[in-house]
Amino acid sequence: MTEVSSLTGRLLVAAPALADPNFDRAVVLLLDHDEQGSLGVVLNRPTPVGVGDVLLPWAPLAGDPGVVFQGGPVGLDSALGVAVVPGEEGPPGWRRVRGAIGLVDLEAPPELLAPALGSLRIFAGYAGWGPGQLEEELGTGAWYLVDCEPGDVAFPDPRRLWRAVLRRQRGALAMVATYPDDPSLN
Fold first, then answer.
1. Which of 22, 41, 45, 70 maximizes the CB count within 10 A of its CB?
2. Per-residue model confidence as pLDDT tens digits over 143-175
3. Is 124 helix (H, G, I), strand (E, B) or coil?
């Protein structure tokens, strides 16, 4: 078996040609990646559902907009919390993914984590790939793999995140940010 280099904590940015409507212009934070497969959340799919409508105790800690995000097409009845915690030590109920970004145990009392949280987003569902599936998609050019910055987790205008992440890249990849929503109108 070949060893898989972990992509945990990196971003997948959908290439304009990616045909799956679940991932049109998606920016996915990879929360787990190993030989068993990959799991992530789509950072730029806000829903109209307020965090207070489904997880009232967490609503005061959720960043703007204070809505639940659709994390992906799988497990839409489950919730994941992703938070940025500045500093070296994370609080109990928070597991580091990479750098200051980590997963929040939504079963933990929010007041336990509140003093340490820099920003929080709640996701319904997730995106998942079986063993080798993501590597195959990367090989076909369906995704751009880039570094994640803590500000990406709670980007103030999530619908602009795709372009913002691409714009900060070097070289030709930055030009992809200018790709029109509908190329046939050019």
1. 41
2. 999 999 999 998 989 999 999 999 999 999 999
3. strand
What own/partner pairs with CB < 8 Å and gap ≥ 24 does 85-91 have?
85/116, 85/117, 85/118, 86/118, 87/116, 90/116, 91/115, 91/116, 91/117
Neighbouring C-alpha atoms within 13 Å toward the C-beta of 167: 6
Please, what is the Cα angle at 32 between 28 and 36, to 5 degrees?
120
Q: How far apart are CA 161 and CA 156, in angstroms?
A: 9
Higher-pLDDT residue of 1, 130: 130
Mean pLDDT of 128-156: 95
CA gap 178, 131 in Å, rounded: 33
For 56-74, the pLDDT digits (tens) are 999 999 999 999 999 999 9
Residue that the structure tokens 């994370």 belong to: 90
- pTM above threshold 0.85: yes
Residue 2 lies in a domain: no
Q: Which residue has the tokens 């145990």?
A: 105
Q: What is the DSSP letter of 65?
A: S
Given a cut of 70, whether residue 4 has pLDDT beyond it is: no
In a domain, 168, yes or no: yes
The CATH number assigned to the domain holding 136 equals 3.40.1740.10
Range of 60's domain? 10-178
